Amino acid sequence: MRAYRWDGSSLWLLDQRRLPAEEVWVRCVSAGEVASAIRAMIVRGAPLIGVAAAYGVALAAKEAAGGPFPDGAPAGDRLVSSLEQAAGTLKAARPTAVNLAWAVERVMRRLREALSQEPAGSRGAAATAATAVAPDALARIAEEEARAIASEDEASCWAIGEAGAPLMPEHGGVLTHCNTGALATAGIGTAAGILRRAVARGHSLRIYATETRPYLQGARLTAWELIRDGLDVTLITDNMAGYVMQQGFVQAVVVGADRIAANGDTANKVGTYALAVLAAAHGIPFYVAAPYSTVDLSVSSGAAIPIEERSPEEVTHLAGMPIAPPQVSALHPAFDVTPARLITAIVTDRGVLRPPYESSLARAAAVPPAR
Ligand code: MRU
């Protein structure tokens, strides 16, 4: 299962707003269109918006490679500023998941490096640095880096799944929140990847998927993709989590992440924090699963993670239908922060990290990424 396709000149995205009712693909041919698709949640999930944005930069580079170059030479400064502008638009599409800015910056770093190489024979010449590389070569470099980001994410998902599967009960219930699967990544998923690998290894799991108001990623996406894989999924509304834990139905909780601060505080889909508090109250292990690209060591604690505020209309309406009086005000933070002290372990492609997270996260920075 793949939620994106790259055909060499456009990025195709499976419109996640319309699942599970319809499988509709949306074509993006510019960085601006990719940024709009990210904002509109056509594509979502921290790793996958990173992959999509990386291809968005590749589209901007392709566009730049097309000219116009009136004097036959690439207009260096215009080229650089159009790429930087596209990168800025993509990074601003959604603020919380660090994978987005990380992926855009990774492609831009390759482009800046290429642009700063002095062309052979021009040493000392007045040529601007930005004219050193042919624009079509630039487009190829961007595309190559986007492909690398996608294939590394696929490998990361597999590594997370393999590292996390042994943490799952042999027989029992596991609660998960939002969607962290193939619709949120370029591979088998993070938390969902752990569930997939555990079941493949013979664990008998009943998966409790929270519906995840207001976007219903759990009901519409997690249930859809895990049932397609033959997993045993039971859907609950978000406010049933306490009940299923109290009844002893749940032996572990595993969720994804949008940004993990240097101290282990983790931003993830709103509602995650409440699940962590409930898990702690019931003595249930609470695992976070994420590729290392979700770790942001530049942010010391969760207090500094920007939380995306989305339209209150997404709360007051369900599938376009009003479910509240028009006068009511509504709050819509898309994410919340779970303090590190509530997290039993963080499962990454670089291994299972345990508290204290300041040191385990910092040490993992030196571990090579999964390939
Ligand atoms: O708003 P969304 O659907 O992009 O939020 C997604 C989540 O919060 C996921 O848990 C997170 O991005 C990890 S996806 C592997």
UniProtKB/TrEMBL annotation:
Active site (catalytic residues): D258 (proton donor)
E.C. numbers: 5.3.1.23
Protein name: Methylthioribose-1-phosphate isomerase
Binding site for substrate: R44, G45, A46, R94, Q217, N268, K269
This protein's UniProt keywords: Amino-acid biosynthesis, Isomerase, Methionine biosynthesis
Role, per record: Catalyzes the interconversion of methylthioribose-1-phosphate (MTR-1-P) into methylthioribulose-1-phosphate (MTRu-1-P).
Signal sequence annotation: none
Family: Belongs to the EIF-2B alpha/beta/delta subunits family. MtnA subfamily.
Organism: Carboxydichorda subterranea
InterPro entries referenced in this protein's UniProt entry, alphabetically: IF-2B-related, IF-M1Pi, IF_2B-like_C, Initiation_fac_2B_a/b/d, M1Pi_N, NagB/RpiA_transferase-like
One GO MF term attached to the UniProt entry: S-methyl-5-thioribose-1-phosphate isomerase activity
Site keyed Transition state stabilizer: positions: C178
Lineage of origin: Bacteria, Bacillati, Bacillota, Limnochordia, Limnochordales
Bilayer-spanning residue ranges: none
Pathway: Amino-acid biosynthesis; L-methionine biosynthesis via salvage pathway; L-methionine from S-methyl-5-thio-alpha-D-ribose 1-phosphate: step 1/6
Superkingdom of the source species: Bacteria
Keyword Isomerase in annotation: yes
Catalytic activity entry: 5-(methylsulfanyl)-alpha-D-ribose 1-phosphate = 5-(methylsulfanyl)-D-ribulose 1-phosphate
Keyword Ribonucleoprotein: no
EC class: isomerase
HAMAP family on file: Salvage_MtnA
